[in-house]
Write a sequence for this structure.
């Protein structure tokens, strides 16, 4: 009895197995490449993120250091500005003292140097208090001046201090002369506004910038001492006279040292 041959079955199985292996090999190539590509892509993302994170951290630290340095420089500049302002004020005060000393030396009348010690917020535009009084020779009615111009007049005196009514107070009147035109008048203050000279005849030769000087005929204020300059000229409501506005030569709101000039007669 002949045994049946198994070759066809085995050949078919081998062929199927070979086909399957070839298919797996063909498929495994692209899949492995894709997996490798994916791994490389993911790895690059993490690597890039780590690098960017480190770069951002470095940048943040640099910004923080720059900010701290800027703040330090700003504080230094602010301190230097304070020191510069102080030096400028000291220089200004020194120049004023020198001018007062020169004025005192040149004055033909008795003068008394004094410091402004206080002023009241309620009458800031009206008066100051100085640190010289009757024991220093200050008298009622004494003129108070600086090298720049007239300040006011003493209205009250104690032994060690005196009250000065400022030229900016409307109650303080002063005889003046418009230097160029030779026109005389009475000047009165208007607090923080320019002082004024009223009732100057229309047609008077008065121009902006003309110098206003002390008339000084009563023996109180020094003759021809500066008072201010003309800053405006306008007609009064009556239409027949002019009102002259005057910018005072001395800033009555920034006073530290003054000269007191007692009247020539009591």
């Amino acid at each position: 009895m002949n045994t049946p041959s198994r070759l066809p079955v085995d050949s078919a199985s081998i062929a199927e197995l070979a086909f399957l292996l070839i298919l797996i090999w063909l498929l495994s190539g692209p899949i492995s490449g894709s997996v490798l590509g994916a791994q490389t892509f993911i790895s690059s993302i993490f690597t890039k993120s780590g690098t960017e994170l480190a770069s951002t951290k470095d940048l943040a630290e640099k910004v923080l250091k720059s900010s701290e340095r800027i703040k330090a420089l700003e504080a230094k500049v602010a301190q230097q500005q304070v020191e510069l302002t102080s030096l400028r004020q000291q220089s200004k005060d020194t120049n004023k003292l020198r001018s007062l000393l020169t004025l005192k030396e040149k004055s033909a009348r008795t003068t008394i140097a004094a410091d402004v010690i206080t002023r009241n917020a309620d009458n800031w535009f009206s008066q100051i208090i100085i640190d010289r009084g009757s024991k220093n020779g200050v008298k009622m009615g004494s003129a108070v001046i600086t090298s720049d111009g007239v300040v006011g007049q003493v209205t009250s005196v104690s032994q060690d201090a005196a009250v000065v009514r400022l030229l900016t107070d409307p109650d303080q009147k002063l005889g003046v002369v418009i230097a160029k035109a030779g026109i005389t008048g009475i000047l009165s203050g208007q607090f923080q506004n320019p002082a004024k000279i009223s009732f100057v005849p229309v047609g008077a030769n008065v121009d902006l910038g003309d110098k206003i000087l002390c008339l000084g005929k009563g023996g109180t204020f020094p003759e021809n001492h500066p008072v201010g300059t003309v800053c405006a000229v306008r007609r009064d409501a009556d239409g027949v006279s002019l009102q002259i506005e005057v910018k005072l030569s001395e800033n009555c709101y920034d006073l530290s040292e003054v000269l007191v000039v007692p009247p020539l007669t009591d």
